[in-house]
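worker-03 picked up job from queue 'complexes'. Input manifest follows; two sequence lines, order preserved.
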Amino acid sequence: MSPLVSIVNVEKHFGSFHALKGVSLDVKAGEVLCIIGASGSGKTTLLRCVNQLVEPDAGAIWIDGELTGFRIQGQSLHKLPEAEIARQRLATGMVFQRFNLFPHMTALENIMEGPVQVQRRPKREVEAEARALLARVGLEAKADSYPANLSGGQQQRVAIARALCMRPKLMLFDEPTSALDPELVGDVLAAMKELARSGMTMIVVTHELGFAREVADRVVFMDHGAIVESGPADAVLGNPREARTQAFLSAVLS
Amino acid sequence: MSALPDISGFRHVPSRHWGRWLAVAVILVLLALLVRAFAQGQIEWDYVGRFLTAPAILQGLVNTIWMSIAAMALGIALGVGTAIMRMSPNPVLQGVAMGYTWLFRGTPVILQLLLWFNLALVFPRLGFGDWSFRTVDVVTPALAALLGLGINQGAYTSEVVRGGMLSVDTGQYEAAKAIGMTRLRALRRIVFPQAMRVIIPPLGNEFIGMVKLTSLASVIQFAEILHNAQNIYYANSRVIELLIVAGIWYLVVVSVLTPAQMLLERRFSRGAGGGR
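worker-03 finished. Artifact:
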């Protein structure tokens, strides 16, 4: 079976900074992949390339067999128009480090915005689904609360529900617990574990090694814009082969 | 340690603000002197009362109000369009927006009004082929005032709107993109509703400015309130009385706008701050 996501030789520069140095990675449907590494290692940039918030300088990303960002015509690649890129982004749901809920909308309105405004699904059906998703992340009572009246952990769970309501094939998490107070991390990780058990394909950039060990099918360690080591969570986290992985893990765990 | 006195039953006495009472007294005296001066000065107050509701003055008031609204509406439409162009990734649109702002902020409004009013000197006829009109018939004082005031306002409003758009966190654009929105839809649904909170106070300011700016259109014979007041005093020489009449009406219009702005601000403060 072909992978759901194929990342092939992706390069990215920000000015003189070489953020991604020819990264290749496949993610199978239903797989939970955790990307770990120090800040500046390129893990967030790689994640943002997958839903085209960052445009790679070279290389390509396929999602479910569809080349993202470009149309192949003969021997050349043509940049897709904005509306097509927006349509391709519907395949991925994104959860941000800083939640990025829309502050002028209630939790329920945040979740319904995309399905109703972008996907043009019937409002009544979407509302029922949105309320069910809120219940799934344990926030059915907060449907009418504005983000300013929710804790960080509650906001992040609403953000997860918002992404899920678009019915994506793949969920991307960009350090979803890094901006949270320690006592709020558990609820968000619990929601993510439940999602992983339900069979969702997930790419998670995280510093939560405990979560990675428990939930990830595969862990990728990145350093200086390249993948250093990748494999089953127990192997990479418990018995790393590469010196740089060992150094990173001992620094994090000490 | 020495025993502290028991003060549990004592009365709290607020501090007395003697300075404030003194200031009130001084202000009242000055105010009384001012009122006396104007009462004894050469102003016929019954003329003010009589002309306050004269038909020409009321007609001028109506013209001032609709011109303020129309010019502001044109200014906001142009301002929003220009701000979006300025923030667009397209360098051509950016350049057009910057050029427009530069040109119309860089010249006095009164000069722009005179240019629009005298457009016939440049283009004697407007239209295409057989379908054309004499410019002097089309560009009336009202149209010239609307174009002059509205287009000038657009240049200023674009900067107010751009400031509002810049005040919205970039994470909001990214979150909007992540749920499949195009740039324009993200602006309309996500960015502008949040930017409004920042845009409305300066825009209220600009609207109040516009009410008074319409008086400049008197130089191109637009029959707004100051123009009509002047026409009356040219005939009856009651200069100060009629200027006071116009002044009173400007104050009335501006006084109505302030609570209207507060209502708008409340409307767009949804979800902001909010206590638990």
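worker-03 released lock.
Chain B touches chain A through 26 residues (CB under 8 Å).
Strands of chain B lie at 125-128, 131-134.
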